[in-house]
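Please, structure for the following, as tokens.
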Amino acid sequence: MLTILPLILVPFATLSAIIHPIESGAPEIPHGRAQAAVIGGIADLAELKAAWDEEALYLTVLVNDSHHFPAAIDNIWDGDGIELAIDAGGEFAEGRGAQDDNDFKIIFALIDGEPQCRVLSSVDRSKRDAFADVAEIERTDEQSIYRLTLPWTLLNVVPASRPEIGLDLKVNQRDDEETPKTTHFMAGGFENSFTPSQTGKFSFALPSGNFTSASWQQTTSMVPGTPLVCMVGYRSEEPVFLEVELAGAASEIELPPAPAGSFVKVELPEQAHGSTLKIKSPLSQPVVGQQVSAQALYEKLLDKIDSLLADDLPVLFENHLISLRSLIITQHARLLLTHESELKDAAQTVQAYTKLLEGLEADAGSWEAFLDGRRSLVMAYVSPHDQSIQYYYLGLPKDWDPDKAYPLFFELHGAGNDHPMAGISSRLGLEPTVDDLAGYQVPKTYAEIDRSGYWVHPFGRGNLMYTGIARIDVMEAYDHAHKLVEIDPDRRYLYGFSMGGGGAFNMAIRTPSRWAAAYSIAPFTNAEPAGSPLTQNLEMLPYKVVAGERDRLNMGYQPIVDDLADLGIEVETEVIPELGHSYARDLQQSKIEWLKQHTRKRPDVFTFVANDRLVSECWGVELFPPLHKDTYARAVVKISGNHLQLETTNSEQVLLKFRGPDNLNLSGSVQIDWNGKRYTHDADAEPTLMLEQGQEPAE
């Protein structure tokens, strides 16, 4: 039984420290590896044994399974294996996914006779390869035995300085290739994929004899006045004196005797940003931290951008810096409003500030780094739809000439970390890092490196599958880029991977006349019902769909292929042997080179289908579908010289645009036959013409 201490206010030089005693009634994890005991499990299927010492957390999982179906190296989650949800700091924060740097979701499996491990969720991406050697996996005739040694240094905590740890177990089972995987859970930590607050709570059995363990729990101030927090676990017959040093000023904090053991939380005053923090307990090494202030970082970041803007800059670089400044201000407002409820979001914001400041102090603060392709610009705009600030990346072509028109490579990203500043700070940090998106392997995509034209990469509001407002964002980014730079209208290319592959398909079937060619790699979904009439629009667009043979996430590939086949539309399809869900560089390169082979040309005969008014135009023929859902407007268009034949259904009006490369590109006197009526129009005098059903031709 732990000693419960009263709340104590302790003198601390000229300041004060507040000590909160902490009680835990959770099941204990024994101290000492040899003392491992069962702490949980899944009835008739698995048991979880645990122990701890000063070096590591030791877990053994025994799974009853007489038939082992191995996972694939690139689909580790699709065969037999286990997953762990770990809240090593015991904060049990609300929210989906890892909320701080000691939350982890890890999967283990035996593949080709060797133990394999993947970190599926963590705040610190650099940790994702660090768990490779923590597992031993043994197979017997009736069981799979997983022996895991998890060093506390990997889990980012000091053992037993905090009273509790969160653990959950998930067992994945599969019998053969034809049988779906089944999943079994110990607790609720895998709710919404991973929710730390729902993991099972376990406490630390303290060692016998005198023991002290201390760690910093909170050293980041999201808003001014946030206290520092130190956690201490100890057992002692005598008072325990903690040596504390804050910003160079040393003092002591006295904790009362706790012969049965106790845990306390110590609150200390906030220090200046960057101050060194040190705490030392008896029988342990000093634990060093650093005070981080979100407000101070924010102000430094804006000051740095303002100092760059004070110079005479090229227009695009000035727009880029103003865009950055606007996005940072917007994100900081979000942090101030939600830092208590959205811990992960707030922590990522502070991390983004740090990385951006480092990058801007280096070459990300130089126009030359964007001009020579080392970096890509960030372009923000005010959304006409809802007045929010949105953005896209813009990569410049080789030997860029602002007066020259270049091809457009319009790339839609896959799903992953949807924090608004995560990708920006990855690209503009001291060293560009891989975007935190599923299947991405390198810091830059191929088109960004190749630089055969402008590379535009819209944020699309994160993970909204490029539907609804995300589709609006994509079109607004497209329009903004066309106003900003000179783009060759006949060499515009649309493509994407995973979620972006599905997005590319959905954009292609709605805007077929805008692109010279399009492709989808591993489309996660096509977001359209089977047999959607919109798919017919691909008849006029070179389109290719690609998937990996071993990719279990490309759920949109087969529905797209089947829909196209049912309509008799021939497109290029490709299944790559042995490939999983990977946006591999050589795969990107081959498909970009395929795009470059195509140049757009307006067909003389085409059919176009539309089902909403957001995008209902093709080659200068704009339809007006009914506003209610599930009704499709259709146009059959034939052009011969200056004679336009037009048959439409479900569109009470039609707007014809005669001039310009994206339109009919007709001039002079144009003869128009629309649904049985003939009209004559002077396209030179009026470049547009609105017609309504039943409208009589002018005399």
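The two ends are 99 Å apart (CA to CA). Residues 605-692 form one domain.
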